[in-house]
Design a protein that fits this description.
alpha+beta, oxidoreductase
């Protein structure tokens, strides 16, 4: 936890340039609210300081790279394996805000990826790390596999000085090893080519030219973090709520593809995965199955869903079957 003031002029310019290039794709919410995202006192009038906090999320016994190499297994971004972090962290920040108010007065408001907030910029400015070439916040003692949350406060609290300057140096692993070449340049991510965007934020079809590159990643992507040398310093979570549910850290693609909509809703209750909806879930897994090793099980699983009442999903299933037709 660290405290910063609210001057984000340099980060505001970076955000405006990113939006001007259209790199936010269909995420229209990134362009709404004017400059409120980079000006905390416009979002919450009276704000003078921001308390920035981090919480690690990777369980020690969860595989990462090994799962990516098992092409018949679904890879789900490791932040999404357990309970939805929004409510858990916001509840704790709200409780902390009440304690601060009781001790020193003022007005406070907690955020966890729930409003137009430049959380990485604020965390960098507070000293929790630096924004790396992969646009993620990196901490020299904890890597980047952690959540961020903020408390906006009207109290003129003493600010912390950034303790960590950029330590990316000449390394370009995150840029070089992105499966879909989503980085225009260091610190510049074209979300329209990012697997996290394609499988989560994107509600339409996944571009055909990118499908084979997605591999078995069915919800998000961690590659640009996993290849980062600083990830070896990852601090493992002690939160049981972040441990995998439904064995999602090692579930087979065919198993997940067999879920009915009722099962999907039940199995993802309290999970961030539910937000994409059942049809996007099937779309993503169909692509994963198209990239999986050819087998009777995979082909039959795909064929069993051809009667799905959704044109987008059916088109992705047909694409997946075509990939196996070429291999057999």
């Amino acid at each position: 936890m660290a405290i910063t003031d609210i001057g984000l002029q340099q980060h505001e310019q970076h955000l405006q340039a990113w939006l001007a290039r259209g790199d936010h794709g269909s995420m229209g919410y990134m362009a709404r609210h004017g400059n409120m995202r980079s000006r905390p006192d416009e979002l919450q009038p009276g704000t003078l300081r921001v308390i920035s906090c981090r919480l690690d999320y990777l369980p020690a016994d969860v595989e990462t790279v090994k799962t990516l190499q098992q092409r018949d297994t679904a890879y789900i971004s490791r932040y999404a394996l357990g309970r939805d972090y929004h409510k858990l962290i916001r509840k704790r920040l709200a409780a902390l805000a009440k304690k601060i108010e009781a001790a020193g007065g003022g007005e406070h408001r907690a955020f966890v990826d729930s409003a137009p907030v430049l959380e990485r910029a604020l965390a960098e400015q507070a000293g929790l790390g630096w924004i790396g070439k992969n646009t993620m916040l990196i901490n020299s003692k904890a890597g980047s596999l952690f959540f961020l949350g903020e408390i906006y406060t009207s109290l003129p609290l003493p600010v912390d000085q950034p303790q960590q300057t950029s330590h990316c140096g000449s390394c370009t692993s995150c840029l070089d090893k992105c499966p879909t070449d989503a980085f225009r340049a260091p610190y510049q991510l074209d979300a329209r080519k990012c697997i996290s965007y394609l499988t989560i934020e994107n509600s339409g079809a996944i571009p055909v030219e990118l499908r084979a590159k997605i591999g078995n990643r069915v919800y998000g992507c961690d590659d640009c973090q996993l290849v980062c040398p600083w990830t070896k310093f990852t601090q493992y979570t002690k939160e049981q709520d972040f441990h995998p549910r439904q064995q999602l850290d090692k579930a087979k693609l065919c198993t997940l593809f067999s879920w009915s909509e009722t099962e999907f809703l039940s199995n993802t209750e309290g999970s961030p995965i539910r937000r994409i909806g059942y049809h996007a879930w099937l779309r993503n897994i169909a692509v994963g199955l198209g990239n999986a090793p050819s087998s009777i099980e995979v082909i039959e699983a795909l064929k069993s869903r051809l009667t799905v009442d959704n044109a987008m999903v059916k088109e992705h299933i047909e694409w997946a079957l075509a990939q196996h037709a070429e291999k057999l």
